[in-house]
Design goal:
The protein is an alpha/beta fold and 491 residues long. The chain has 15 helices and 14 strands. Strands 1-3-4-5-7-9-11-12 form an eight-stranded parallel barrel, surrounded by five helices.
Amino acid sequence: MVNNKFPDNFLWGGATAAYQCEGAWDEDGKGFAITDLLTAGTRRNPRKLTLEVDPGVYYPAKKGIDHYHRYKEDIKLFAEMGFKVYRMSVSWARIYPNGDDEKPNQKGLDFYRDVFKECHKYGIEPLVSIMHHDTPVALAIKQDGWLSKKTIDAYVKYAKTLFTEYKGLVRYWITFNEINMTMNYFGDVYGAGILSNGTRIIDINNVSDDAMSKEKQNKRFAALHNQFLASALAVKAGHEIDPNNQIGCMIASDAHYPYSCNPVNILAAQNSMRKLWYCGDVQVRGEYSYFTKRYLEEKGVTLNVTEEDKKILKEGKVDFYSLSYYTSGTDCLDQEVDTDSGNFNLGAANPYLKKSDWGWAFDPDGLRWVLNEIYGRYNVPIFIAENGLGAIDEVSDDGKIHDDYRIHYLREHTKAMKQAIDDGVDLFGYTWWGPIDLVSASTGEMKKRYGFIYVDLDNEGKGTLQRVRKDSFYYYKKLIETNGSCVFEED
């Protein structure tokens, strides 16, 4: 008889990020992070970074969804759904306003302690991202963010503060969210805080990789190397401070396929997957992969890795691999094809897959495939830290939100996860992105909604902020109650 339930201790929950939900961007001693000063945007109108606050510009992070003041209400709703885990991030600038202050901001420490205690009140395990793209602005201006070794020292001090302050309250940690985004076309600012040449206004995601100069490519990979070192040092410190800590990496893990069986497309897809392995090999295996030399040479990158660096990386290997998965990409080099893959360029449009409102392919089988690829390469426990569907939700005449499309997405990806577990993958948890509507990281919109909980707020920051349960709220509640088996009972 086939067992359709997930493992008994499987961690079901949801995921958010501080800058997308908290708001209160300058309250209680908080400093500015890069992500706070990103303007709103749309799929066709990229977000901009403005390092001086412009009173005539709308910054979504200023208000977020006011989670800072409403976290008790929100966590109570998460508990109603039955969450076992809540993946969230701490804002570095709320703890150290300038990134490298002598002492932490006590009000910031107190806020997150209260959040963690509220989670435990309902039996919810916090899983905390130490860095979720939000480099403090002061570090970006003073020392070009992650291009400086001084930023490593500031990050490790910050991480040690979290490990010490929240010992016994938090045992699951992620060092960097989607660390491989530093390699990609908005990684210069979003991932690394690189603000060279006195730049004050930047379009964060409208420059293709191909258009990048060798100078920029070198800066990207130098910054990423410093993040690897910071992660490794944090892992080592976290284990020393509390041996019960489980500390993972987090890598954006889209599946990539060849458009056809033409060998040039197969090799192109293999090369795309190396963007995952480049980061995963360093953080899980503790060393750069064999393909790194040629990979960097083709990008015109020269990377200085010292013997001391190699020692640090080897001693700071993570305990588990976490990933985000939303969609898949298709590589085609032998013909002209439609490449409209939404606000991220993931290659050729796959003719076998349907798309979301934002052009992302619906591909649950890709999740099963990528989970098997990751586990086969690393053989460490895996956690799905982000998976979800951004869509346009409408409030019906009955005052409810009937989001059957989101339920369908969740159901099919849950089936894919169970298939991967049956394949032998050690998958121990899943957090939906995001369980409550929040500001979209890629476009800065509220219109692009992911939540099981509707938040009355529009793209201009107008609305009551009222929370409303969608149909998907009740479906996820049932899914957790049945430990996943309900998705199979419907077939």
